[in-house]
Design a protein that fits this description.
The protein has about 230 residues and is of the alpha+beta class. The protein has two domains: about 55 residues; about 150 residues, 2-Layer Sandwich (Heat Shock Protein 90). It contains six helices and eight strands. It has a five-stranded mixed beta sheet with strand order 2-4-5-7-6. It has a three-stranded antiparallel beta sheet with strand order 1-3-8. Helix 2 packs parallel to helix 6 and helix 3 runs parallel beside helix 4. The longest helix is centred in the first third of the chain and has 32 residues.
């Protein structure tokens, strides 16, 4: 059975659970339906992530003819992540970007990859953690760097972080609603843009996720001739 075939019966189940949960019932009756609905939604997220990953694995490389305003894109993502951070107890999220540095690629895919990394920094670190999002030229590359001063990751986990369903802390991932597919999707998206995902971390110091793109995919908006 394909992932697409799984989506239809799950949609039906979720719909029935929503209707049942909306009906008036005693608290001890309502809780099981609420839990079932939450788990059905989580399964739906996993299926959607699997479909995205399958599409990325089978698809051709994205067109390199579409300029993407990475500074604006990152500002939108950080605004959204800040709302989540406030709900979790407060984080310090800083954004440092080269406003003239754009990238050629697929905006939707880059939005997905960058959102995943920035939201992960909030989800997988304790409240109060300092998070820095940087977009800059670094030697002969354009780099998005998401770094945090969280609890860090053991070195033995790092080579496996982009594997499907691999989790450092399985209990916490389930609690946060993680699918275990996010970093696998990020790796494929960055690779489809001729880039590389690099991960470094140190316990009790923090983690750094770097998306490095070749300089030939960049645009310097400051030196572009204005459209007449």
């Amino acid at each position: 059975m394909s992932h697409i075939e799984l989506r239809t019966p799950l949609t039906v189940i979720t719909g029935f659970l929503e209707n049942l949960g909306d009906n008036e019932m005693l608290p001890f009756q309502k809780r099981p339906f609420t839990l079932m609905h939450q788990q059905a939604e989580r399964m739906n997220s996993i299926i959607n992530a699997l479909l995205t990953l399958s599409r990325l694995e089978m698809g051709v490389a994205p067109s390199a003819e579409k300029p993407v305003a990475i500074p604006e894109l990152l500002a939108r993502i950080v605004d959204q992540a800040s709302l989540l951070a406030d709900q979790k107890g407060g984080y310090k999220i800083s954004l440092e970007v080269d406003n003239n540095l754009w990238l050629l690629g697929e905006e939707c895919e880059l939005m997905s990859a960058f959102s995943n990394l920035i939201f992960n920094a909030v989800i997988h670190t304790p409240p109060g953690t300092e998070i820095l999002v940087t977009w800059k030229r670094q030697e002969n590359e354009a780099c998005l760097i998401v770094s945090d001063k969280g609890s860090g990751i053991e070195q033995r986990h790092i080579p496996r972080l982009t594997e499907r369903f691999y989790r450092v802390d399985k209990a916490r991932s389930r609690q946060s609603g993680g699918t275990g597919l996010g970093l696998a999707i990020v790796k494929h998206i960055i690779g489809r843009h001729d880039g590389e995902l690099r991960i470094s971390s140190q316990l009790e110091v923090g983690s750094k996720f770097t998306c490095a793109f070749p300089v030939n995919l960049t645009l310097d908006k400051a030196v572009e001739k204005p459209i007449e």
